[in-house]
Amino acid sequence: MQTSILRRKTRTAVVGNVKIGSQFPVSIQSMTNTKTADVEATVAQLRRFEEAGCEIIRITVNDGAAADGFAKIVKQTKLPVVADIHFDYKMALAAIRAGAAKIRINPGNIGTFERVKEIIEAAKAAGIAIRAGVNSGSLQKDLLEKYGRPTPEALAESALRYAEMMDGLNFTNLVLSIKSTDVVSTIAACEILSSKTDIPQHVGITESGTVKTGAIKSAAGLGAILSRGIGDTVRVSLSGDPVEEVGVAREILKSLGLRGGPVLIACPTCGRTQIDLPKLAETVEKRLKRYKENISVAVMGCVVNGPGEAKEADVGVAGGAGVGLLFVKGKAVKKVGEDKIIDELFLLADKVLRERK
Predict the structure, then answer these.
(1) Which one of 101, 168, 184, 197 is most buried, by most CB atoms within 10 A?
(2) How far is CA 83 from CA 61, 128, 200, in A?
(3) What does the domain layout of the chain look like in residue ranges?
(4) What are the tens digits of pLDDT across the range 55-104?
(5) What is the rounded distance in angstroms from the CA atom of residue 233 to the CA atom of residue 202?
């Protein structure tokens, strides 16, 4: 039984049909990388996001053509759509009219207070959420002068300023986010912010890198933040196919017990291994994606690391020379030839799931 993380208590924000806050599961977000004016390409990518299990999607609205495309796109997806706005407050207003479920702004680059206020009032009238985002590259000048650089304290103070401004305008459907490319600074900033407000937090490591290195960096940062009970919605930012972000985010959440679903347990190879373990593990992992239920499947290289070390797994296999020893909850049940391991393993998995019902 996996130990669960005690999440820090936050209020609730509502984004379309998704509720964000400590009383609800940590939601997974991503962002399209198509041109928003290209409605067909964007909608096609949204279909892939839906299939991957994305729960909130962000789309840039950076000019008039994008705003026109955005209005058509929101009608063609099941996902709550967040309009990503920078600099031009008119784009935020256009997105709100078009049916955005949330507006993402950095109030510091919108311009005057009156323009920010106009966005907030429009969002309030439409009953939609706002995410006020702060990152290390767009900190206010006075805070840079005060702290000398984008320290965690500076980032948290910036976010709290925006929260105070929203509160002064009686706007409560709010999510805050603090992001940096530096993992340690982001962790510290999120901790400071969480200690000073109960507003839900969107967490992530910005500009983390390629699919491989970015996934590692995001896992390190998000793992530390989420394990502290902080974070109500996440995005893994990768330089690659953005749909990949969803799978990485889901695995991070599953590893912390914050999400259910199938889990693969696989040992590393060593000199005792007498079976093609990497190929076997990859095949099992791919087939596991068909499952939505909570089930753990172990793929072990030999009897030394077999049923004993993987006894908490629902089902598993320990490889031998051309054979596999199948086990359920650590108890050996059957020995099969290598060519039958996959089919027999998943017959056992299906049986375990049936017996649970």
Answers:
(1) 101
(2) 6, 11, 18
(3) 13-255, 263-356
(4) 999 999 999 999 999 999 999 999 999 999 988 999 999 999 999 999 99
(5) 5
Token reading at 190: 């999120």
Looking at residue 327, its amino acid is F
pTM: 0.88
Contact indicator for 329, 357 with CB cutoff of 8 Å: no
Burial class (CB in 10 A: 0-12, 13-18, 19+), 104: buried
Closest among 356, 324, 318, 352 to 338, alpha carbons compared? 324
What the block records as the tokens of 159 is 């976010």
pLDDT in tens, 225-283: 999 999 999 999 998 899 999 999 999 999 998 988 898 988 887 777 778 888 889 99
Same fold, 13-255 and 263-356: no
Identify the CATH assignment for 263-356 out of 3.40.50.2300, 3.40.50.300, 3.30.413.10, 3.40.190.10: 3.30.413.10
Per the listing, tokens 């990768």 go with 238
